[in-house]
Amino acid sequence: MAHGAQKRAIVLVANGSEEMEVVIAVDVLRRAGIQVLVLAADTSAGPVVCSRGVKLVPDAYLGDDSVRIATYDALVIPGGAEGSATLSENPQVRSILADFYAQKKLVAAICAGTLAIKAAGIQTK
Predict the structure, then answer these.
(1) What is the pTM of this model?
(2) For an engineered disulfide with 40, which of 45, 58, 66, 108 has Cβ 3.0 to 4.6 Å away?
(3) Helix axes 91-102, 81-89, angle to 10 degrees
(4) Which domain of life does the protein's organism represent (predicted)?
(5) So what's the pLDDT on residue 47?
(6) What's the rounded Cα separation, in Å, for the pair 89 and 119?
């Protein structure tokens, strides 16, 4: 990435993601001047229903050919038991996580979101 180019982050969401962990992460990153893509692990259009019933409309959905995941610098996985389980079980999410980690890009997880990191086979010291 060229020096001075705007940093870009993906926040992955699924039905059952913890809404505060999604919204606060997106808000803080955007306030820091980072371009954020809220990416739903579901491949069908529509809102994501979070753990407390809050509905969020993602910017894009996994499998959307217009999303160039490799061009992003960071990946954030929010918690929420159901959402984390969905993300952990998705082979494409596991592959994306492993690719980001192998490329030494920032991979972050909040609370139960760490389950997706474990499912991707990422081991930290």
Answers:
(1) 0.92
(2) 58
(3) 80
(4) Eukaryota
(5) 95
(6) 8
Residue with tokens 């996580």: 97
Read off the pLDDT band of 1 (50, 70, 90): very low
Question: Identity (one letter) of the amino acid at 2?
Answer: A
Give the Cα-Cα-Cα angle 106, 94, 104 (nearest 5 degrees).
25
Give me the DSSP letters along 8-48: EEEEEE-TT--HHHHHHHHHHHHHTT-EEEEEESSSS-S-E
Strands 35-40 and 60-61: parallel
Q: And the tokens for 103?
A: 């490329």
Identity of the residue numbered 50: C
Pairing of strands 35-40, 8-13: parallel
Tokens found for residue 76: 């954030």
Which of the 8 DSSP states describes residue 68? -
